[in-house]
Design brief:
mainly alpha, 3 helices, 84% helix
Length: 67
């Protein structure tokens, strides 16, 4: 049981770290600042954000419940 909490925490941290790294990318910030929301990098960041949310929704509740 403790091992699953470690892996769950690691999964959440990796998802959040990936989101932070890609969201702070200079190319993404430039495209967003210039209003190019159709750029592939912007779409990619939206995808990473969606995966991060799904990861939190799947792993989070079982971590809180202690399962």
């Amino acid at each position: 049981m403790e091992e699953s909490r470690i892996w769950g925490t690691l999964g959440i941290l990796l998802a959040l770290a990936g989101l932070v790294v890609i969201a702070l990318d200079h190319e993404f910030l430039t495209a967003l600042g210039e209003g190019h929301v159709g750029e592939p990098i912007v779409v990619y960041v939206v995808g990473v954000a969606a995966v991060t949310v799904v990861t939190l929704l799947v792993i989070g509740p079982s971590m809180v419940a202690g399962e």
